[in-house]
Design a protein that fits this description.
Length: about 55
């Protein structure tokens, strides 16, 4: 029998989805930041969460 194929298991799967409503101006700023820094919106949100938690 051949070994299992497919994606390998990861240590910390990202299974939680977070949604937020933002205004057009904030979205434009977010998209500009993402484009300039070659990051996804999700990456920026994760970075923001970590930054807030650092200041606890």
């Amino acid at each position: 029998m051949s070994p299992r194929t497919g994606r390998p298991k990861i240590d910390k799967p990202k299974t939680i989805e977070v949604k937020a409503r933002i205004d057009e101006e904030t979205n434009e700023k977010l998209m500009k930041y993402c484009k300039e820094n070659q990051l996804s919106r999700t990456d920026v949100v994760r970075m923001g969460i970590e930054k807030v938690l650092e200041h606890k």
